[in-house]
Design a protein that fits this description.
Blueprint lengths: L2 E5 L7 H12 L5 E3 L16 E3 L9 H17 L2 E2 L4 E6 L7 E2 L4 E6 L4 H4 L5 H4 L3 H22 L4 E4 L5 H8 L6 E2 L18 E5 L8 H9 L5 E5 L5 H7 L4 E4 L4 H9 L1 E6 L8 H7 L4 E4 L4 H4 L12 E4 L4 H11 L6 H8 L4 H26 L1
């Protein structure tokens, strides 16, 4: 079985990139095809992989320019990237990995983190939902073109895998897949994290600093609690705005290496997770460090966390109901009255360890490949 891996792009650090590293562990001989690659902006482990990029890589090496030039140049570049001579194409995608040029007889397995947000949920972008007149018409034209391209490319997929229950109906609505969708939860690398004996002094946020991540709500909550410390780890388009909003009890960090990040988790009181995510790796990273999570109780955390229900020693998270500053403040006040068990929390995280993910992906791919071989043999 000759297999190739395809990823949208490799110019940042995030959950999708970690999934591709796990794909590489599952199939270490497979090359990784991608729109663009920046070895200094994504995970260092990719330096040991055979990475093949599109011509787009000659001009774009960062997320800002990728967004600027993706339509139409990134789309064109991915459509012209030939991924041929393989029995199986294993794709990790939210947008353009599906667009590559493949052979018609290749078995295509798509790990879809979510359907292309710009095409299928354009109004989730503030600049689109608030646009008017000619600008609105131009956005509508682009979105309609993207939808057609995205749907046509998705039709090539034989089997869809996704990360959480919440994403399944979105994929069904957008792509009408020909086969049932399989859920394989993304992995947490428990070996990268540890339980610390140090008495924690601060709460932690690990997130891209974008509006939909709701980090501003956490900052506003801690502005009202100056006696409590908050560490915010991450970068993004709202970095300056959030730093200007924060009082002196709030500190920021970015560009942490693996050791520094694991230390930040291990020595925190809890991870605060205010956003609505389809899945969310950071809560599991906190759990792998023996630390509980204070989370907005919607989305992927419902699948991965054990919420507090009168027994904190058998819980991994405390949920709050609304994405409001007061709800976050109240949850923190409640949290400080509870005692969680770090060993129980870490044992729970091990259920989602990378070793299980790699095994599930290997088994799924090999099973589907053997099934497709049997069907082709029977047809001949």
């Amino acid at each position: 079985m000759k297999l190739a891996i395809v990823q949208d792009e490799l110019i940042r650090k995030g959950g999708a990139e970690q999934v591709v590293l796990s794909f590489h562990k599952a199939f270490p001989e497979a090359p990784i095809y991608t729109l663009a690659y920046n070895r200094d902006k994504t995970y260092a482990e990719f330096k040991n992989c055979n990475i093949i990029t599109s011509w787009f890589n000659k001009f774009v090496h960062d997320a800002h320019n990728l967004k600027r030039f993706f339509f139409p140049f990134g789309i064109m570049a991915m459509q012209q990237l030939k991924v041929k001579g393989y029995d199986v194409i294993l794709q990790s995608t939210t947008h353009c990995a599906k667009y590559v040029d493949t052979e018609p007889n290749a078995l295509i397995i798509t790990y879809c983190h979510t359907p292309f947000r710009l095409a299928w949920r354009p109004n989730s972008y503030g600049e689109i939902s608030s646009s008017k007149g000619l600008k609105r018409q131009l956005y509508s034209l682009v979105v309609n073109i993207l939808k057609k391209i995205d749907k046509k490319s998705a039709l090539k997929t034989d089997w869809f895998i996704t990360n959480a229950k919440e994403v399944v109906p979105r994929i069904e609505e957008a792509y009408q897949p020909q086969n049932p969708i399989t859920i394989i939860n993304p992995p947490v690398k428990c070996s990268n994290f540890y339980i610390s004996d140090k008495i924690p002094e601060y709460y932690l946020v690990v997130s891209r600093l974008e509006s939909y991540k709701k980090v501003d709500l956490v900052i506003e909550a801690f502005n009202k609690m100056p006696e409590k410390k908050l560490l915010v780890v991450g970068k993004g388009s709202m970095k300056k705005q959030l730093r200007a909003l924060a009082n002196t009890n709030i500190t920021f960090a970015e560009g942490l290496n693996a050791e520094e990040l694991s230390k930040a988790y291990a020595e925190s009181k809890a991870l605060i997770f205010p956003q609505h995510e389809d899945y969310g790796i950071t809560p599991l990273e906190a759990n792998a460090s023996g630390r509980p999570v204070i989370a907005y109780g919607k989305g992927g955390v419902i699948d991965t966390m054990i919420p507090y229900n009168n027994n904190a020693m058998q819980a991994t998270a405390l949920f709050f109901e609304n994405q409001h500053v007061d709800d976050i403040s109240s949850a923190i006040t409640q949290f400080e009255e509870l005692s969680f068990d770090p060993e129980f929390i870490r044992e729970h995280a091990k259920r989602f360890d990378e070793i299980h993910f790699v095994k599930h992906i290997q088994e799924f791919v090999k099973r589907k490949f053997n099934e497709s071989k049997s069907i082709k043999t029977a047809n001949h």
